[in-house]
Amino acid sequence: MQMEVSFIKSAFKEVQYPPPDRPEIAFAGRSNVGKSSLINVLVNRKKMARTSSTPGRTQAINFFEIGKGRMYLVDLPGYGFSRVPIRIKASWRNMIETYLRKRPNLKAVVVILDIRRELSAADRDLMTWLAAYGIPSIPVLTKADKLSHQQSIARAKEMYKELEQFSCGKPAVFSAKTREGREEIWERIERAINLQPNSLQSIYPLGLIAPHHV
Questions:
Q1: HSE on the CB side for 57, CA within 13 Å?
Q2: Closest alpha carbon to 48 in 79, 91, 12, 2
Q3: Which of 153, 66, 161, 150 is nearest to 107 (CA)?
Q4: Partners of 5 in the beta sheet?
Q5: Domains and CATH numbers, the chain
């Protein structure tokens, strides 16, 4: 059975958000960190979230519905791209902060980090902000296939030590190419929205948790 996923709307302002009537998981990360590819793999769609070779292309907050009212998945604009004008950077920052502060049904934020890179100032700011406001975060280290298996393990341990200060737990290691980490990420999302582990899998046995090649 294919997972039911539908695009709901794009929002630039709070008044444009859909009603907060179901659990919500947001995805945030630096521009070009692999956020869209992660979302596409999680929902088993090739083009659900737009991927682009141009960092900073996602300029709106995009809402997707998972499973006919089960939850919202929210794609936040990428941050930290140096060639974006300061005026637009400020607009994106305000957009993201407004969403994070005022969305009552937000259960957790998946913070996406490139396993090959050190934490940026923007990454640290986001993690600090989430911790200060008591918003759970799920760190995901993308592009694991760019490293050897041993290098990936070593980097994950290093990143875990860095992330401990933000009380966010052990990061999940992910590859859009091999789909490594997909099941673990969904299990953590399920826990965040207070579902029993694998409860969504029972509804979508081939589309959500179990590996499924596209």
A1: 12
A2: 2
A3: 66
A4: 66
A5: 5-209 (3.40.50.300)
CA–CA distance, 122 with 205 (Å, rounded to integer): 37
- Cβ atoms within 10 Å of 106's Cβ, excluding its own: 21
**Mean pLDDT over residues 121-131, rounded?**
91
Query: Residue 27 forms beta bridges with which residues?
Result: 75, 110
Instruction: Please list the alpha-helical segments (H only) found in the chain.
Output: 35-42, 86-102, 121-132, 149-163, 182-192, 199-203
Asked if residues 99 and 15 have their Cβ atoms less than 8 Å apart, the reply is: no
Please state the pTM of the whole predicted model.
0.84
Q: Are 140 and 110 in contact (CB under 8 A)?
A: yes
**Rounded CA gap, 163 and 211, in Å?**
28
Compute how many other C-beta atoms are within 10 angstroms of the C-beta atom of residue 162: 16
Judged against a pLDDT cut of 70, whether residue 84 lies above it is answered with: no
Q: Is residue 145 helix, strand or coil? A: helix
For tokens 């141009």, name the residue.
Answer: 54
Tell which wins on pLDDT, 106 or 93. 106
Q: Are 78 and 62 in contact, with CB atoms under 8 Å apart? A: no
Residue 180: CB atoms within 10 Å: 18
